[in-house]
Design goal:
Number of strands: 0
Order of helices and strands: HHHHHHHHHHH
Number of domains: 1
Strand content: under 5%
Shape: globular
Largest sheet: none
Radius of gyration: 17 Å
């Protein structure tokens, strides 16, 4: 992590596969939950468009470290944990929109579920469309149905997992290292999809802390 949390920091893709989150000490955990609830309540009670857009683009100005410092160690099935993962995905995608859109497009071609429809990306899905999709999902957390936004995030991750797995299968013989990297990434997307799904269910039962 960079020491200066006010400067955007490039988030290495390898950190995405390695990231696991974890339990925070009590004080940091309390701060994570309090800030997440306060931020969400404030914006949803008064969804000023300018404020929402600043929050969507927050990591573009301040870097991912500013969000990670608050929420990255929160448990996955919690409000700060969910917010952190959406920002993490957005940063990953904006750093490689071409590669991400390629995996997503492949995922839509091999998926046997309604996940591409639930995710809601424009088709065909190029770099501009994939960026717009993740911004729309993040915006939905602040202004729309929070659980629906998480469901869209989960569907997006499952499509990405399917795409990464398919490309890994193609690369297995000629590029085994790339195949392994893609398989690891697919597993991570699948894990985040499950975490988003759990958070959506908890939100619907007023139990997402």
């Amino acid at each position: 992590m960079a020491d200066d949390f006010h400067k955007p920091t490039k988030f290495p893709s390898g950190m995405f596969e390695a990231f696991q989150g974890g339990e925070d000490p009590a004080t940091l955990s309390r701060v994570a939950h309090e800030t997440a609830h306060a931020l969400l309540a404030r914006v949803r009670n008064d969804p000023d468009p300018d404020v929402v857009e600043r929050l969507v683009a927050y990591t573009d100005v301040n870097g991912i470290d500013a969000v990670a410092e608050l929420w990255s160690r929160a448990t996955p099935r919690s409000l700060p944990g969910a917010l952190w993962r959406v920002y993490l995905l957005r940063m990953l995608i904006r750093q490689d929109p071409a590669g991400t859109s390629f995996l997503f497009q492949r995922g839509t071609e091999v998926a046997r579920t309604i996940d591409p429809v639930v995710a809601g990306a424009a088709t065909p899905t190029g770099p501009d469309e994939i960026i717009a999709l993740t911004d729309e999902i993040l915006r939905g957390l602040f202004t729309g149905d929070f659980a629906v936004a998480l469901d869209r995030g989960a569907a997006f991750c499952r499509v990405m997992a399917a795409g990464a797995t398919s490309v890994a299968d193609d690369a297995d013989a000629a590029e085994p290292d790339r195949a392994t990297e893609l398989t690891t990434r697919a597993l991570r997307f699948s894990q985040i999809a499950a975490e988003f799904g759990s958070c959506a269910r908890l939100w619907r039962h007023d139990s997402l802390d």
